[in-house]
Amino acid sequence: xxxxTILVLFYxxxxxxxxxxxxxxxxxxxxxxxxxxxxxxxxxxxxxVLEEGQVCVVYWSVLQSWCRAVVESLIVDSVCCTARCLLVxxxxxxxxxxDQIRVVTQNFLQLPFWVKRLHLMGIKPTTLQVDVLEERANxxxxxxxxxxxxxxxxxxxxxxxxxxxxxxxxxxDDLVAKKFALYNSQLAAGYELDEVDQEPVxxxxxxxKQTACTTTRVAVPGTHFLSASCWVRLFLKWLNPDLLDxxxxxxxxxxxxxxxxxxxxxxxxxxxxxxxAPIMEHLRRGWWRAQYxxxxxxxxxxWPAMARGCNTLVxxxxxxxxxxxxxxxxxxxxxxxxxxxxxxxxxPIAVVLCSGWEKAQVVYDLLEEIKVNQTLHSIIILLGxxxxxxxxxxxxxxxxxxxTTPFTLVRLLSCHCFLFLRLSHLVLDEADRLFTLAPEQxxxxxxxxxxGNLKGEPMSRCHQLVAVAKRWSGHxxxxxxxxxxxxxxxxxxxxxxxxxxxxxxxVLVTMESKKSSELLDLLDLNPNIGxxxxxxxxxxxxxxxxxxxxxxxxxxxxxxxxxLTHRFDCVMEQWREDIGxxxxxxxxxPLFEHQGCHDLIxxxxxxxxxxxxxxxxSTSHSVGILHYLERTCAQLxxxxxxxxxxxxxxxxxxxxxxxxxxxxxxIGVCRDSSGxxxxxxxxxxxxxxxxxxxxxxxxxxxYVKTASVFYGRIIRKECHDDFQSMVTDLxxxxxxxxxxxxxxxxxxxxxxxxxxxxxxxxxxxxxxxxDRLFSSNVVWFxxxxxxEEVKSYQLLELPQRYHSVPSQAVEMIVCxxxxxxxxxxxxxxxxxAIREKIQGVxxxxxxxxxxxxxxxxxxxxxxxxxxxxxxxxxxYNVHTEILNTxxxxxxxxxxDLLRALCQEMGHMSG
Length: 910
Prior knowledge:
About 30% of the residues lie in helices and about 25% in strands. With about 900 residues, it is an alpha/beta fold. It folds into six domains: about 5-120, SH3 type barrels (Roll), CATH 2.30.30; about 125-140 and about 150-185, no CATH class; about 260-495, Rossmann fold; about 500-650, P-loop containing nucleotide triphosphate hydrolases (Rossmann fold, 3-Layer(aba) Sandwich), CATH 3.40.50.300; about 655-710 and about 815-910, CATH 2.40.50.90; about 725-805, SH3 type barrels, CATH 2.30.30.140. The strands form nine sheets. It has a nine-stranded mixed beta sheet, with helices on both faces. Strands 1, 7, 9, 10, 12 and 13 form a six-stranded mixed beta sheet that branches. Strands 5-4-3-2-6 form a five-stranded antiparallel beta sheet. Helix 8 packs parallel to helix 9 and helix 13 (about 405-415) packs across helix 15 (about 440-455). The radius of gyration is 35 Å and the shape is globular. Its EC number is 3.6.4.13. Keywords: ATP-binding, Developmental protein, Differentiation, Helicase, Hydrolase, Meiosis, Metal-binding, Nucleotide-binding, Repeat, RNA-mediated gene silencing, Spermatogenesis, Zinc, Zinc-finger. One of its GO terms (biological process) is meiotic cell cycle.
């Protein structure tokens, strides 16, 4: 059996290091000048044949340099030829396409390879059945061989010493002490591992950090150096970071003045910034770091866990930003994808699941900006409901990372399940929304992922599941229990921590003047079991009032607030003391005060129930409180429900100057009524019909806003000449003289020229930016319906006689359809397909409902006249065309919901 081996960078010896380093630097410089020379025929430099063991030159994008290498294995398919190479002067493995490989000339082979093969003297591993790719090892005997491919055939035996600070460690002895290896003498004596010996030994989390600066010395003739980052990566190939049970920790997060709950199967050693984050070096650079310059408290604890491949669940306020997980997640993938790409199966090794197409596009665009697509060949897939679409779709064979939605992934799994056999990394972006919008699809995906973990190829069983969200939900408890063994859970939103901890929520509605008496009635001051109660108030004054009321009942009460900082230590010492039966200790503090005390209390408290007093002073928070309590099992007081209904009604009253919610019109309901700025009630003088409410009309779409919403003109035979005469007059008027607008005012009417046409526009907003040479204004084309930004110099004066001509643009909505897959908005390719078909083309339509200047159409068809006959035929139905895209479903309740709103308006006006 071969002994364990490592790769080191080989230098000559003391006194000769500077010269040899300069020689290798010169070699690298000459190689790059040669292979970057654009005057050379690159085809002649490409090898005619590639085979294992071949010495060549490859391009390494990390250093942006050409490097000497040896081909270790080849991956050939119908798409491309890829080679896994060892960089013989850097000790790195690299997977490159054949286009990035060049022949090596004799001039560049004069210096020996800078990598030397060594092995640890006097020890042999226990069963290190890793092959390096899996980064895991079992402890059973007999020993099995571990092989790291290298150039030398006769490795040099060494004793390896690691100096960490002032401590010098012999790695040979340390591996035996940690039961990862045995001395040769033990093997000769027939040593066997007992049950205790086979328990895994933990490594510190810092071992994964790529920025470590430990110096390693090798005890062989001459002096050899091995960087920390290099030997740690190599030792991880055969040291086993198996998971151990670990108690949850509540840890203060430092300068952010927030508390983070960390519940992890492994001890978590947090990072503090980008500089010491455990991510690959090239991920530290780029515009995204400026955009995401400061790590949140949750990032500091979750990034080390993600980077080391742990199952990780993060609840954080900034979880909506993909950058909150991409850097450590990509680090883990990029370090492992080199090896997993050698497996026999095809298909992606990682999938990022997003709640909708818009978020999926954001994630994919970030991957392009981070420049990992050239390595991972990531793609975005969004498939519709067409039966043959998923079956006909071909995933590129070199694709390692897939960005998609749960609905699309389930369709792919149903047709191409065999392409996801090596799926080993799964990210749930906005996990709470994924389970809300696609619960059945998520179950299917997770079951497939779990089966792959149990039955996948041996080389790809290192599974990782990452879930990020802003809110905790019951689905996540199921996720942790069934699909995330030994997870690292990081929560930085305290109200979500209460849900995660399953703290019982009790709500009491009372008058402000009666809160103190209600509190006294609630507290048991002589309990059978010792109790601690934390009372949180709005202010220091309220703390004083609570303290006075409790003291009057001879209760053992402590008090802290911002004017009592000198008493913090004393109070916390008493608060932490063990208490016996018949003892009740009460601590009162304001909600906002000294953070140090806040952290100590949170870290020391183990809450079993939470009592919330709601009074008339809670008006501004009542809606948020209700939405939070709805996510718990708390019984909601009827007074709170009725009070919140009144608050919501008052909020709607304040939106009377806002336009009617667009989602309410297009699908019948608002997708986010709590956060939507527009109104959701009809107002008679704003929404009374100004156009036909029933009957057949002829329409001409001029501007298609979405697949089901467009602006255009209702073609009226009796008014047709008036509008056309205005268009003709405007064309003649500006053919003679184009008078630029002298003064641009908001609300004013002007003219903008597009090609040979002149359009009336209304100024919606005037730019006040003085740093622009030409100011821009947002205008509405009143006869077309579109809104655009135009430069001030493009605005022409509109003759006064045309100001009174009514605007021609009418909003038209195709009824009875909505986006498929619980999407909020139409996918651009659906809108594009409908735009190409209907824009500028007259259609026949039936009006079924009208609100203000918005007409609802069902059906809307394009008719064609048969030459020489009075017969017409329907070429297509727009409603059907939208459904045929495969990204839409029927919406039969659309009109009923609109009519219900209309009835409500009738009751209110009556």
